[in-house]
Specification:
Blueprint: H1 2-17, H2 21-68, E1 71-72, E2 107-108, H3 115-123, H4 129-138, E3 146-169, E4 173-199, E5 202-220, E6 229-239, E7 243-251, E8 259-267, E9 279-284, E10 290-295, E11 306-317, E12 320-331, E13 334-336, E14 349-352, E15 356-366, E16 371-382, E17 386-389, E18 395-396, E19 402-414, E20 420-428, E21 436-445
Length: 446
């Protein structure tokens, strides 16, 4: 019994010194679990960074594809950030990489599609499309190689004049003939213009007009009766006076100084001159004096060479665009076979139209990146014309001077990256100006 008891005590002591198997397995599992958790966290962080990089590469790929197709993305792609700066996301079950959403509609090249794009263009110093369109209409664009412009203008002119031929009796009764003269003219002018940008400071321009005119002449007092009115209509069409001009940029817009451009031009007498046109006699008085005569056709040009020099300036002050111009036109004298409108006589001589001074100023407001509205005032002051018959001295033509002031409203709208639609309504402010004019221009920029 003593030997058996000793064996039992020895076995119990040995069992107490050996740790239980379950406890040893539990500690190993915890260590392995911690190691796997750390590895899983690192892999999830790397996975999130790869997903972010995948999205950024997809955005850059879409932007590059838009540029290749002739478009500009509405926002610059976000630069990839270093992996170290990216915060580690919270542990989550692994998922498949999400498909990047389709890129929003991108704006076409030449203008921004959103207000954010316009703001970005302003911060980068680039001109927005509306500013470029205003400059195109008021001076020139020097960053375009070629601009082809088609324009169509309608002008309405109506002038009435009362003619009294007699005397006033008893300070109240007029004795004599009362004649009312009225001239109504409608002119349709199609102009084709080509503008070449030779370098960032010099642009050449060629303008070729084609005119169609219809004029109605009315004269009251026909046959000596004040109530009797005679009327005759004449018309004419053909190429007008072609002009060649150059724009040279003197100063770029900087600080308070505006974009300043020097304009030089010359006009050739390629149109039908108004001198030597045969007149139709409609009425004579008892003394065989011509009372009413009209030209058989309408002229399409002045018949004289002219040179023009001017300055134009544009200043952008968000959201307004200020512009103005001033210039001088010198007309040279020319000789003609007949200056008299009497079809029964021929009187050769020389003609020189009066020199003209013109100026204007206005402001344009950009509604958005594509559309702008302009309001401006323009005026042209012309001196009297002079004529000199063969063997005579120069004489001024009374009533040939003029002051033509216009109030203009214009709208520009970019149809696509290369084409702009321009509409201008001009309202005459003085008797020498047209009653109104309506112009549409369609410049195509290459």
């Amino acid at each position: 019994m003593a030997a058996g008891l000793a064996l039992v005590l020895a076995a119990s002591t040995a069992a107490a010194q050996v740790p239980p198997p379950a406890t040893m397995a539990s500690d190993a599992d915890r260590a392995e679990m911690r190691r796997l958790m750390e590895q899983l966290t690192q892999m999830r962080s790397a996975y999130a960074q790869e997903v972010r990089r995948l999205r950024e590469l997809d955005m850059q790929m879409q932007a590059l594809q838009a540029r290749i197709e002739g478009r500009v993305p509405p926002a610059a792609p976000i630069a990839a950030q270093p992996a170290a700066s990216a915060p580690a996301p919270q542990p989550s079950p692994p998922r498949a990489a999400p498909v990047a959403p389709a890129a929003p509609a991108v704006a076409e090249e030449g203008y921004a599609g959103t207000a954010e794009d316009a703001r970005r263009a302003q911060e980068e110093g680039r001109e927005t499309r509306s500013v470029a369109d205003v400059k195109q209409q008021n001076q020139a664009l020097f960053d375009r190689r070629l601009v082809l412009e088609n324009s169509l203008a309608y002008t309405r002119y109506d002038r009435k004049q009362l003619t009294l031929n007699g005397f006033l009796a008893l300070d109240a009764i007029f004795l004599g003939n009362i004649a009312i003269e009225n001239v109504e003219s409608d002119t349709l002018n199609y102009n084709f213009a080509a503008r070449w940008g030779l370098n960032p400071r010099l642009t050449l321009n060629l303008d070729v007009p084609y005119l169609a005119r219809r004029t109605v002449y009315q004269k009251g007092g026909a046959g000596g009766a004040a109530a009797s009115i005679a009327q005759e209509r004449t018309s004419g069409h053909g190429i007008g006076d072609v002009s060649l001009s150059a724009n040279y940029k003197l100063f770029n817009e900087r600080g308070i100084w505006p974009d300043t451009v020097l304009n030089l031009g010359v006009t050739a007498p390629t149109g039908r001159e108004p001198y030597g046109i045969n007149w139709r006699i409609l009425e004579r008085d008892d003394d065989d004096f011509i009372r009413f005569a009209v030209p058989e056709e309408q002229p399409t040009g002045n018949g004289l060479w002219a040179a023009t020099v001017g300055l134009s300036a544009v200043k952008t002050t968000d959201p307004a665009i200020l512009f103005g111009n001033v210039g001088y036109t010198r007309t040279f004298s020319g000789s003609f076979d007949d200056l008299d409108n009497n079809p029964e006589t021929v009187n050769p001589g020389h003609v020189r139209l009066g020199d003209a001074y013109f100026f204007g100023a206005g402001v344009a407001f950009a509604f958005n990146e594509r559309t702008s509205l302009s309001i401006s005032f323009s005026d042209r002051l012309a001196a009297r014309a002079r004529t000199r018959y063969e063997g005579d001295v120069w004489r001024k033509v009374i009533g040939s001077d003029g002051n033509a002031a216009m109030f203009n409203l214009g709208v520009t709208h970019a149809l696509n990256p290369n084409t702009t639609l321009v509409g201008i309504l001009g309202i005459g402010l003085t008797p020498d100006a047209p009653d109104f004019s309506l112009t549409f221009k369609l410049p195509y920029m290459l």
